[in-house]
Write a structure and sequence with these properties.
296 residues, mainly alpha, MetI-like fold, 2 domains
Length: 296
């Protein structure tokens, strides 16, 4: 719809701008109220409870920050989340590139294979990995039958199991933003680089990859945030050394009924995620290149 049709022409310029602003505000207000009610208000309640349980005090934060138990769990959480994000980014980029290069029924089949796991519960997929990675599971049996190992490997209740299960669950969330970014690439830019003497690797490195980098960043941020807050997968596939903050929050709140410490842990986790995302944004701001900058 044109500007002339979307705002009354009898209004002066300032009036038309105000009318357009009021119209946008009216369209976005219901969504904003929904976000406030379902997201902002609960988080505010968690923060306030961590500060006022009982009374205005920072005792729960001092307990968390001064404990020799909580800090290693935080470090372990971000370590596993970073490993999962890097592996998911590598696998997701290769898969999204193959999907973007495919055509016809093959592209549809690959897209369906990526989206189909999202229809299955994370809990079901996680417990499926407990069968696959078990000492008498199909993976160990196949390795023994092939003569590659003499006895079953310990693939459960360690970092390997948690990373595999987390990557499997989060991979579609990395692939879809990358696939969307790659499908939007104007391949005439790559062909132009090749025609000017660039090698296929140089054309990919200097043209294709910078254009798709925003999709990689979007998928990486989404994967990282969800990996930090994972509960079911590390609880089912990991051991004591793979304890993550979400598991600690559940233990403090539901089992020990220590809601002050649980809400303090939740608040500190939120702050840590926000800080890490701000750092990633600051680092990545100077590396993101849009298609328009390449055509200047």
């Amino acid at each position: 719809m044109s500007q002339a049709a979307s705002s009354p022409q009898w209004l002066p310029g300032r009036g038309r701008r105000r009318f357009a602003f009021d119209r946008r505000l009216g369209l976005t207000l219901p969504a904003a109220l929904f976000v406030m009610a379902s997201f902002v208000v609960p988080i505010l309640g968690i923060v306030l409870r961590s500060l006022f349980d009982p009374g205005l005090t920072l005792v729960h934060y001092r307990e968390v920050l001064g404990s020799s138990t909580f800090l290693p769990v935080f470090l372990n959480t971000f370590r596993i989340a970073l490993i999962v994000t890097v592996i998911t980014a590598v696998l997701g980029y290769v898969l999204a590139y193959a999907m973007a290069r495919s055509r016809g029924w093959m592209a549809t089949l690959m897209l369906g294979a990526v989206v189909l796991p999202l229809w299955t519960s994370d809990l079901v997929r996680t417990f499926a990995w407990t069968i696959v990675l078990g000492r008498r599971g199909p993976l160990n049996n196949a390795l023994i039958d092939l003569g590659l190992i003499d006895r079953p490997l310990s693939l459960l209740f360690n970092d390997i199991a948690v990373v595999i299960g987390s990557v499997h669950i989060l991979l579609p969330l990395m692939v879809l933003p990358l696939y969307s970014a790659m499908r939007a690439v104007d391949h005439r830019l790559v062909l132009a680089a090749l025609s000017l003497g660039a090698s296929p690797w140089a054309a990919f490195r200097d043209v294709f990859f910078p254009i798709t980098l925003p999709g990689l960043v979007a998928g990486g941020v989404l994967t990282y945030v969800l990996a930090v807050g994972m509960f079911v997968t590390p609880a089912a596939l990991g051991g004591p050394e793979q304890t993550m903050v979400a598991m600690l929050i559940e233990s403090q709140g539901r089992r020990q009924l220590d809601w002050g410490t649980a809400t303090a842990l939740s608040t500190l986790l939120l702050i840590a995620v926000i800080v890490s995302l701000l750092v990633a944004r600051g680092v990545g701001r100077g590396t993101l290149v849009g298609p328009g900058e390449l055509t200047r």
